[in-house]
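STRUCTURE REQUEST FORM
Protein name: Parvulin-like PPIase
Source organism: Microvirga lupini
Requested output: structure tokens
Priority: standard
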Amino acid sequence: MRLLKEPLLHFLVLGGLLFAAHAAVAPSEDKAPSASAVRITEADADWLKEMWTRQWRRPPTAEELTRLVADHIREEVLAREAKALELDVGDTVIRRRLAQKMAFLLDDTLQVAEPPEAELRTMYGARPDLVRTPPRVSFTQVFFRREQGADRARATLAALTGGSAMPEEQGDGILLGDSFADQDEQALDNLFGPTFAGAVFALPFGRWAGPVESSYGLHLVKVTAVSPPEARPFAEVRGKLAEEWRRQRQEATQDQLLKGLIQKYRVAVDPAVRPFLGPLAGQVEVRP
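Status: completed
Returned output:
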């Protein structure tokens, strides 16, 4: 009976009753809100099967599909937990990937109309790079390997210029051949390399010149024909013009969408960043 009269016991009992009442009336503020549920639908399973089939050229077995679903669930909960812990914040790779996915989404949703015929005609006259054929050249060459090739090439050039030598009897053999007809610069680049391709179009017409260096060695070259650029018929390049028209319109639309997003998120930069803004200088705010 003496125990029931102890003040310490009274304090402990009263404190416990107050704590229980508070817990019943006011739930703990420290309790974390419940996370959104993860639901794996039949469509998700079908998508997993489709991705597997595309990669392996066959549908997955029941065991393989079980692993796919388990991996998908594991990936989903880990990704959500990582996001909850803000592990994505400040991660350059994740930021770039999200921006890339957003750009793909914008590309898919942009609706570009068919180009007006009048605008295509205007582009036909204003964009020779789209409608003209590249210049072409025909030539004969004599090839020399690099070992002592420079001296031999110069001596042979003098003999060919003076008419005392026949080209087919000079130089070293090369599997590519000696004569080439109607070659543009890209074709010559593929065959001999960029140095040779650029040099041949600058050589004089109708006489031997060189030596010109290529990825194989040295060459004496005689240009036998030159075809200047020519405008192809409108009907032949209309598809190419339409593709460029759509690209320009899509780019302009994307620029407008980006401008709206910059305004939406109130992008601001330090004064030290201002010189590097380029075309965005008029769209962002500079704050000291």
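Reviewer notes: DSSP finds ten helices and six strands in the chain. The longest strand covers residues 218-227.
Form closed.
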